[in-house]
Amino acid sequence: MTTLHPTALSIPPVPALPLLGAAMPSSALPSQRDWLQAGRDLELQDAVSHLVLDADWQAHAARIRADLGEYPGRLGIHGPFWGLTVMASDPAVRAVTVARLQRGLEFAAALGATHMVIHSPFDFFGHPLVAHTSSTGLGDQIGVVHDTLREVVALAQSVGCTLMMENIRDLNPAPLLALVRSFGSESVRVSIDVGHAHLMQSRGGPSPDHWIVEAGELLGHLHLQDNDGMLDRHWRPGQGTIHWPAVFRALRDVGGEPRLILEIPPGEIEAGIRFLSKADLAR
Questions:
Q1: How far apart (Å, rounded) are the C-alpha atoms in residues 31 and 50?
Q2: By Cβ atoms counted within 10 A, which residue in 58, 92, 116, 126 is the most buried?
Q3: Rounded to two decimals, what is the model's pTM?
Q4: Where is the Xylose isomerase-like TIM barrel domain (predicted)?
Q5: Helix axes 244-254, 208-215, angle to 10 degrees
Q6: Is 145 among the domain residues?
Q7: What is the per-residue pLDDT across 13-66, written as a single tens digit (0 to 9) for each?
Q8: Does 15 fall in a domain?
Q9: Total number of domains in the chain
Q10: In Å, how far are 128, 130, 151, 181, 222 from 122, measured between CA atoms?
């Protein structure tokens, strides 16, 4: 009679919870330095201001690099956006946008940053004037964006910085995904602001987790912030009405390593992490 010996079951390891990063101005770095040394992603917000880009930005970048020291995480910036559009059909307006974004990339390169957030040009999907569908000129609109970003994308590729295109007033992910996909470049990826998606959900758009699933492999970056579905409040997670378990379940299903950036006041970061950590969603 043959005796069968039980074999040890092969139990797959439990994946580590996603590691959260944060956005902040460089002035907040001294209070966040210890927290960042865990290798968390960091997004600096200085370059949104023309006051930085029109001043001695090289010296400013050098001071930040010195302040960061041996920071081990992935570094990025939020690019300039006030008054700019990447869907500028007027060549004079386009030139201003291109110059600003190029200067943002130069600032990013001086920092050693590897992503720069820029804003989607699309408005409320379904508006009679800006429907953004194939039958209402989406292809032409994408062509205008290419005219604006052609030199910007080339510069991003040369300095090793990925452009993360963020949903702002987009009600539907389809136009933004079509735009990002049209570049056929790993230097252009989707950024999902879950708070913006939540605002648009209250106006008939899909939920933030639906946005994540739709983006799939194009997803490179998220802004994590909460709100009540009424205003873009940038509350810490747990203060609003976003369904955070669905957000992180979608992230787990999609996979990859998108940058998870808490875009909330620096003084709220620790409490935001505690909420998501206590819920076993992130760390």
A1: 25
A2: 116
A3: 0.92
A4: 55-278
A5: 10
A6: yes
A7: 667 999 999 999 999 999 998 889 899 999 999 999 999 999 999 999 999 999
A8: no
A9: 1
A10: 13, 8, 21, 15, 18
